[in-house]
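Posted in: Structural Biology > Protein-Ligand Complexes

Title: Requesting predicted complex, nicotinamide-adenine-dinucleotide in pocket

I'd be grateful if someone could produce the C-alpha coordinates for the following input. Sequence and ligand are given below.
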Amino acid sequence: MRVLITGGAGFVGSHLAEAFLQRGDRVTVLDGVNEKIHHLLAHPRFCFVRGSVLDGVLVDRLVGEVDVVYHLAAVVGVEHYVSNPLKVLEVNVNGIQNVLKAALVHRCKVVFGSTSEVYGRNLQVPWREDDDRVLGSTRVDRWCYATAKAVGEHFCFAYKRLGLPVTILRFFNVYGPRLDNLHSGRVVSVFIGQALRNEPITVMGDGGQTRCFTYVDDCIHATVAAGVAAAADGEIFNVGTDVETKIINLARLILELTGSCSEIRYVSHRDVYGARYEDVPRRVPDVSKMQEILGVRAITSLREGLRRTIAWFRGEGIEQSGTVVSYAPGSQG
Ligand SMILES: NC(=O)c1ccc[n+]([C@@H]2O[C@H](COP(=O)([O-])OP(=O)(O)OC[C@H]3O[C@@H](n4cnc5c(N)ncnc54)[C@H](O)[C@@H]3O)[C@@H](O)[C@H]2O)c1
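-- Reply #1 --
Done. Output follows.
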Protein backbone atom coordinates (compact mmCIF):
# COMPACT_ATOMS: atom_id res chain seq x y z
CA MET A 1 0.00 0.00 0.00
CA ARG A 2 0.97 3.62 -0.42
CA VAL A 3 0.10 5.57 2.72
CA LEU A 4 0.03 9.31 3.39
CA ILE A 5 0.10 10.43 7.02
CA THR A 6 -0.60 14.11 7.65
CA GLY A 7 0.93 15.08 10.98
CA GLY A 8 3.00 11.93 10.59
CA ALA A 9 5.98 13.46 12.33
CA GLY A 10 4.00 13.72 15.56
CA PHE A 11 3.79 11.18 18.37
CA VAL A 12 1.11 8.84 16.97
CA GLY A 13 2.05 9.48 13.34
CA SER A 14 5.70 8.54 13.84
CA HIS A 15 4.71 5.17 15.32
CA LEU A 16 2.15 4.64 12.55
CA ALA A 17 4.78 5.35 9.90
CA GLU A 18 7.07 2.75 11.49
CA ALA A 19 4.26 0.18 11.52
CA PHE A 20 3.46 0.61 7.82
CA LEU A 21 7.14 0.49 6.87
CA GLN A 22 7.47 -2.75 8.85
CA ARG A 23 4.54 -4.16 6.85
CA GLY A 24 6.41 -3.40 3.63
CA ASP A 25 4.26 -0.43 2.61
CA ARG A 26 5.37 2.96 1.27
CA VAL A 27 4.87 5.94 3.58
CA THR A 28 4.77 9.67 2.91
CA VAL A 29 4.59 12.06 5.86
CA LEU A 30 3.33 15.62 5.52
CA ASP A 31 4.25 17.76 8.51
CA GLY A 32 5.81 21.09 9.39
CA VAL A 33 8.51 19.50 11.57
CA ASN A 34 10.48 16.25 11.53
CA GLU A 35 12.22 15.78 14.90
CA LYS A 36 10.37 12.57 15.78
CA ILE A 37 11.02 10.86 12.42
CA HIS A 38 14.74 11.54 11.99
CA HIS A 39 15.35 7.80 12.26
CA LEU A 40 13.09 7.16 9.24
CA LEU A 41 14.39 9.79 6.84
CA ALA A 42 16.89 7.51 5.09
CA HIS A 43 14.44 4.60 4.69
CA PRO A 44 13.98 3.74 0.97
CA ARG A 45 10.19 3.48 1.26
CA PHE A 46 9.79 6.65 3.32
CA CYS A 47 9.32 10.22 2.14
CA PHE A 48 9.03 13.33 4.30
CA VAL A 49 7.37 16.40 2.81
CA ARG A 50 7.67 19.56 4.84
CA GLY A 51 4.49 21.59 4.48
CA SER A 52 1.07 22.32 5.85
CA VAL A 53 -2.19 20.49 5.57
CA LEU A 54 -3.68 23.94 5.01
CA ASP A 55 -1.94 24.00 1.59
CA GLY A 56 -4.74 22.54 -0.55
CA VAL A 57 -2.63 22.23 -3.71
CA LEU A 58 0.08 20.27 -1.90
CA VAL A 59 -2.47 18.06 -0.14
CA ASP A 60 -4.18 17.30 -3.46
CA ARG A 61 -0.89 16.28 -5.07
CA LEU A 62 0.12 14.01 -2.18
CA VAL A 63 -3.30 12.39 -1.80
CA GLY A 64 -3.24 11.65 -5.55
CA GLU A 65 -0.17 9.45 -5.02
CA VAL A 66 -1.52 7.09 -2.33
CA ASP A 67 -4.17 4.45 -1.55
CA VAL A 68 -5.06 5.64 1.96
CA VAL A 69 -4.56 8.87 3.86
CA TYR A 70 -4.40 9.11 7.63
CA HIS A 71 -5.28 12.62 8.69
CA LEU A 72 -3.52 13.16 12.02
CA ALA A 73 -2.26 16.72 11.54
CA ALA A 74 -3.73 18.80 14.33
CA VAL A 75 -2.94 21.36 16.98
CA VAL A 76 -3.02 19.18 20.09
CA GLY A 77 -2.66 19.97 23.80
CA VAL A 78 -4.70 21.82 26.40
CA GLU A 79 -2.20 24.68 26.53
CA HIS A 80 -3.05 25.46 22.87
CA TYR A 81 -6.81 25.20 23.40
CA VAL A 82 -6.70 27.89 26.04
CA SER A 83 -3.89 30.09 24.63
CA ASN A 84 -4.53 29.99 20.86
CA PRO A 85 -8.03 28.76 20.02
CA LEU A 86 -7.88 30.46 16.61
CA LYS A 87 -4.96 28.27 15.51
CA VAL A 88 -6.68 25.17 16.90
CA LEU A 89 -9.84 25.95 14.95
CA GLU A 90 -8.10 26.93 11.71
CA VAL A 91 -5.85 23.88 11.48
CA ASN A 92 -8.31 21.34 12.84
CA VAL A 93 -11.38 22.47 10.87
CA ASN A 94 -9.72 23.42 7.57
CA GLY A 95 -7.14 20.62 7.33
CA ILE A 96 -9.71 17.84 7.22
CA GLN A 97 -11.59 19.61 4.43
CA ASN A 98 -8.49 19.78 2.22
CA VAL A 99 -7.89 16.08 2.80
CA LEU A 100 -11.48 15.05 2.09
CA LYS A 101 -11.76 17.19 -1.06
CA ALA A 102 -8.58 15.65 -2.48
CA ALA A 103 -9.59 12.13 -1.44
CA LEU A 104 -12.92 12.45 -3.25
CA VAL A 105 -11.17 13.53 -6.45
CA HIS A 106 -8.62 10.70 -6.25
CA ARG A 107 -10.97 8.03 -4.78
CA CYS A 108 -8.67 7.54 -1.80
CA LYS A 109 -9.71 6.14 1.58
CA VAL A 110 -9.48 8.51 4.57
CA VAL A 111 -8.86 7.61 8.22
CA PHE A 112 -9.46 10.59 10.48
CA GLY A 113 -7.72 10.84 13.86
CA SER A 114 -10.40 12.18 16.14
CA THR A 115 -10.54 12.20 19.91
CA SER A 116 -12.26 11.05 23.07
CA GLU A 117 -12.68 14.78 23.75
CA VAL A 118 -15.71 14.82 21.42
CA TYR A 119 -17.77 13.16 24.19
CA GLY A 120 -17.01 16.18 26.37
CA ARG A 121 -18.04 15.67 29.99
CA ASN A 122 -20.85 13.17 29.44
CA LEU A 123 -21.11 11.49 32.85
CA GLN A 124 -22.63 8.28 31.47
CA VAL A 125 -19.53 6.11 31.00
CA PRO A 126 -18.44 3.94 29.29
CA TRP A 127 -19.07 5.86 26.08
CA ARG A 128 -20.29 4.02 23.01
CA GLU A 129 -19.53 5.55 19.63
CA ASP A 130 -23.06 6.88 19.11
CA ASP A 131 -23.45 8.37 22.60
CA ASP A 132 -24.22 12.04 23.16
CA ARG A 133 -21.62 14.78 23.28
CA VAL A 134 -21.87 17.02 26.35
CA LEU A 135 -19.82 20.17 25.93
CA GLY A 136 -19.66 23.43 27.83
CA SER A 137 -20.16 26.99 26.69
CA THR A 138 -18.38 28.33 23.62
CA ARG A 139 -17.03 31.03 25.94
CA VAL A 140 -14.84 28.36 27.51
CA ASP A 141 -11.97 28.02 25.03
CA ARG A 142 -11.16 24.55 26.24
CA TRP A 143 -13.99 23.14 24.13
CA CYS A 144 -12.65 24.50 20.82
CA TYR A 145 -10.60 21.36 20.15
CA ALA A 146 -13.47 18.96 20.86
CA THR A 147 -15.77 21.09 18.71
CA ALA A 148 -13.28 21.31 15.84
CA LYS A 149 -12.79 17.53 15.86
CA ALA A 150 -16.56 16.99 15.92
CA VAL A 151 -16.90 19.30 12.93
CA GLY A 152 -14.23 17.21 11.21
CA GLU A 153 -16.29 14.10 11.90
CA HIS A 154 -19.37 15.77 10.37
CA PHE A 155 -17.34 16.58 7.26
CA CYS A 156 -16.27 12.92 7.08
CA PHE A 157 -19.88 11.75 7.12
CA ALA A 158 -20.89 14.40 4.58
CA TYR A 159 -18.21 13.07 2.20
CA LYS A 160 -19.24 9.49 2.98
CA ARG A 161 -22.62 10.39 1.46
CA LEU A 162 -20.75 11.27 -1.73
CA GLY A 163 -19.31 7.76 -1.77
CA LEU A 164 -15.95 8.35 -0.05
CA PRO A 165 -14.69 5.54 2.24
CA VAL A 166 -13.95 7.19 5.59
CA THR A 167 -13.17 5.83 9.06
CA ILE A 168 -13.09 7.85 12.26
CA LEU A 169 -10.90 6.86 15.19
CA ARG A 170 -11.40 8.44 18.61
CA PHE A 171 -8.13 8.00 20.48
CA PHE A 172 -8.18 7.74 24.28
CA ASN A 173 -5.10 9.20 26.05
CA VAL A 174 -2.40 7.47 24.03
CA TYR A 175 1.09 7.54 25.57
CA GLY A 176 4.49 5.98 24.97
CA PRO A 177 7.97 6.82 23.70
CA ARG A 178 8.20 10.16 21.84
CA LEU A 179 5.13 11.60 23.61
CA ASP A 180 5.71 15.37 23.85
CA ASN A 181 8.71 16.63 25.81
CA LEU A 182 9.28 16.40 29.53
CA HIS A 183 8.34 20.00 30.32
CA SER A 184 4.95 20.49 28.70
CA GLY A 185 2.25 18.62 26.88
CA ARG A 186 0.21 15.72 28.14
CA VAL A 187 -0.05 14.46 31.68
CA VAL A 188 2.07 11.31 31.27
CA SER A 189 5.13 13.09 29.92
CA VAL A 190 4.73 16.03 32.30
CA PHE A 191 4.58 13.71 35.35
CA ILE A 192 7.54 11.63 34.12
CA GLY A 193 9.56 14.81 33.59
CA GLN A 194 8.73 16.11 37.06
CA ALA A 195 9.57 12.74 38.62
CA LEU A 196 12.90 12.38 36.79
CA ARG A 197 13.89 15.92 37.84
CA ASN A 198 12.72 15.23 41.43
CA GLU A 199 10.39 18.23 41.19
CA PRO A 200 6.90 18.24 42.72
CA ILE A 201 4.36 16.31 40.66
CA THR A 202 1.54 18.76 40.01
CA VAL A 203 -1.80 16.98 40.23
CA MET A 204 -4.73 19.12 39.13
CA GLY A 205 -7.84 19.19 41.30
CA ASP A 206 -8.04 16.35 43.83
CA GLY A 207 -6.60 13.82 41.38
CA GLY A 208 -9.84 11.82 41.42
CA GLN A 209 -10.53 12.48 37.73
CA THR A 210 -9.94 9.41 35.58
CA ARG A 211 -8.50 8.61 32.16
CA CYS A 212 -7.92 5.39 30.25
CA PHE A 213 -4.24 5.47 29.30
CA THR A 214 -3.61 3.55 26.09
CA TYR A 215 -0.13 2.35 25.21
CA VAL A 216 0.88 3.49 21.74
CA ASP A 217 1.50 -0.03 20.34
CA ASP A 218 -2.10 -1.01 21.10
CA CYS A 219 -3.36 2.20 19.50
CA ILE A 220 -1.26 1.57 16.39
CA HIS A 221 -2.57 -1.99 15.92
CA ALA A 222 -6.13 -0.63 15.78
CA THR A 223 -5.13 2.33 13.62
CA VAL A 224 -3.45 0.16 10.99
CA ALA A 225 -6.43 -2.22 10.99
CA ALA A 226 -8.81 0.70 10.39
CA GLY A 227 -6.93 1.61 7.22
CA VAL A 228 -6.79 -1.88 5.75
CA ALA A 229 -10.11 -3.49 6.80
CA ALA A 230 -13.02 -2.77 4.45
CA ALA A 231 -15.40 -3.46 7.34
CA ALA A 232 -14.14 -0.28 8.99
CA ASP A 233 -15.38 1.96 6.17
CA GLY A 234 -18.06 4.41 7.26
CA GLU A 235 -17.55 3.60 10.96
CA ILE A 236 -16.43 5.39 14.13
CA PHE A 237 -14.25 3.49 16.61
CA ASN A 238 -13.19 4.25 20.14
CA VAL A 239 -9.50 3.35 20.22
CA GLY A 240 -8.07 2.58 23.62
CA THR A 241 -8.27 0.59 26.78
CA ASP A 242 -11.28 0.65 29.11
CA VAL A 243 -9.09 0.32 32.21
CA GLU A 244 -9.77 3.49 34.18
CA THR A 245 -7.03 5.17 36.21
CA LYS A 246 -7.29 8.08 38.63
CA ILE A 247 -4.76 10.82 37.94
CA ILE A 248 -3.49 10.59 41.52
CA ASN A 249 -2.79 6.89 40.96
CA LEU A 250 -0.96 7.68 37.72
CA ALA A 251 1.24 10.07 39.71
CA ARG A 252 1.92 7.44 42.41
CA LEU A 253 2.77 4.77 39.84
CA ILE A 254 5.20 7.08 38.05
CA LEU A 255 6.83 7.91 41.39
CA GLU A 256 7.24 4.20 42.11
CA LEU A 257 8.59 3.30 38.66
CA THR A 258 11.07 6.17 38.51
CA GLY A 259 12.17 5.81 42.15
CA SER A 260 11.73 9.55 42.39
CA CYS A 261 11.67 11.45 45.67
CA SER A 262 9.25 14.06 44.26
CA GLU A 263 6.36 15.10 46.45
CA ILE A 264 2.81 15.33 45.09
CA ARG A 265 1.49 18.88 44.95
CA TYR A 266 -2.19 19.62 44.30
CA VAL A 267 -2.97 22.63 42.10
CA SER A 268 -6.29 24.01 40.92
CA HIS A 269 -7.22 24.01 37.25
CA ARG A 270 -8.11 27.67 37.58
CA ASP A 271 -4.61 28.55 38.81
CA VAL A 272 -3.06 26.84 35.79
CA TYR A 273 -5.51 27.58 32.97
CA GLY A 274 -7.73 30.35 34.37
CA ALA A 275 -11.44 30.46 33.55
CA ARG A 276 -10.80 29.08 30.06
CA TYR A 277 -10.75 25.49 31.26
CA GLU A 278 -13.24 22.92 32.58
CA ASP A 279 -12.19 19.40 33.43
CA VAL A 280 -13.72 16.10 32.33
CA PRO A 281 -14.29 14.02 35.49
CA ARG A 282 -14.27 10.56 33.86
CA ARG A 283 -13.27 9.44 30.39
CA VAL A 284 -13.95 5.78 29.62
CA PRO A 285 -14.59 4.13 26.23
CA ASP A 286 -16.69 1.14 25.37
CA VAL A 287 -14.17 -0.74 23.24
CA SER A 288 -16.32 -3.63 22.07
CA LYS A 289 -16.61 -2.27 18.52
CA MET A 290 -12.82 -1.93 18.21
CA GLN A 291 -12.44 -5.51 19.40
CA GLU A 292 -15.18 -6.99 17.21
CA ILE A 293 -14.59 -5.20 13.88
CA LEU A 294 -10.91 -4.25 14.04
CA GLY A 295 -9.98 -7.42 15.96
CA VAL A 296 -7.72 -5.52 18.35
CA ARG A 297 -7.52 -5.50 22.14
CA ALA A 298 -5.43 -3.09 24.19
CA ILE A 299 -3.26 -5.57 26.08
CA THR A 300 -0.44 -3.46 27.54
CA SER A 301 -0.87 -2.73 31.24
CA LEU A 302 -0.28 0.81 32.46
CA ARG A 303 2.64 -0.42 34.58
CA GLU A 304 4.35 -2.07 31.60
CA GLY A 305 3.60 0.81 29.23
CA LEU A 306 4.95 3.36 31.69
CA ARG A 307 8.03 1.23 32.34
CA ARG A 308 8.83 1.30 28.59
CA THR A 309 8.01 5.00 28.29
CA ILE A 310 10.18 5.97 31.26
CA ALA A 311 13.04 3.83 29.92
CA TRP A 312 12.81 5.68 26.59
CA PHE A 313 12.75 9.10 28.24
CA ARG A 314 15.69 8.11 30.43
CA GLY A 315 17.64 7.22 27.29
CA GLU A 316 17.40 9.17 24.09
CA GLY A 317 14.25 11.04 25.02
CA ILE A 318 15.80 12.96 27.83
CA GLU A 319 18.32 14.44 25.42
CA GLN A 320 15.68 15.25 22.81
CA SER A 321 13.26 16.92 25.17
CA GLY A 322 13.99 20.57 25.56
CA THR A 323 16.50 20.43 22.70
CA VAL A 324 15.72 22.06 19.39
CA VAL A 325 17.08 19.75 16.70
CA SER A 326 18.20 21.73 13.66
CA TYR A 327 17.82 20.57 10.08
CA ALA A 328 18.12 22.02 6.59
CA PRO A 329 14.93 23.81 5.54
CA GLY A 330 13.07 21.93 2.85
CA SER A 331 15.04 18.71 3.37
CA GLN A 332 13.16 15.56 2.45
CA GLY A 333 13.80 12.00 3.39
N1 LIG B 1 -2.14 11.09 21.53
C1 LIG B 1 -3.39 11.09 22.00
O1 LIG B 1 -3.64 10.67 23.12
C2 LIG B 1 -4.53 11.58 21.14
C3 LIG B 1 -5.80 11.56 21.72
C4 LIG B 1 -6.86 11.98 20.96
C5 LIG B 1 -6.67 12.40 19.66
N2 LIG B 1 -5.45 12.42 19.12
C6 LIG B 1 -5.32 12.87 17.73
O2 LIG B 1 -4.38 12.06 17.06
C7 LIG B 1 -3.61 12.84 16.16
C8 LIG B 1 -2.14 12.69 16.49
O3 LIG B 1 -1.92 13.16 17.82
P1 LIG B 1 -0.48 13.16 18.48
O4 LIG B 1 -0.65 12.74 19.87
O5 LIG B 1 0.47 12.42 17.62
O6 LIG B 1 -0.16 14.72 18.46
P2 LIG B 1 1.17 15.46 17.96
O7 LIG B 1 1.01 16.89 18.36
O8 LIG B 1 2.37 14.74 18.43
O9 LIG B 1 1.09 15.32 16.38
C9 LIG B 1 0.37 16.22 15.57
C10 LIG B 1 1.26 16.56 14.40
O10 LIG B 1 0.53 17.43 13.52
C11 LIG B 1 1.45 18.36 13.00
N3 LIG B 1 0.76 19.52 12.48
C12 LIG B 1 0.15 20.53 13.16
N4 LIG B 1 -0.33 21.44 12.31
C13 LIG B 1 -0.04 21.01 11.06
C14 LIG B 1 -0.27 21.53 9.76
N5 LIG B 1 -0.93 22.68 9.58
N6 LIG B 1 0.17 20.82 8.71
C15 LIG B 1 0.83 19.65 8.87
N7 LIG B 1 1.09 19.11 10.08
C16 LIG B 1 0.66 19.79 11.16
C17 LIG B 1 2.35 18.70 14.17
O11 LIG B 1 3.59 19.28 13.72
C18 LIG B 1 2.52 17.34 14.80
O12 LIG B 1 3.69 16.68 14.31
C19 LIG B 1 -4.12 14.28 16.29
O13 LIG B 1 -5.05 14.53 15.25
C20 LIG B 1 -4.81 14.30 17.63
O14 LIG B 1 -5.84 15.25 17.65
C21 LIG B 1 -4.36 12.02 19.84
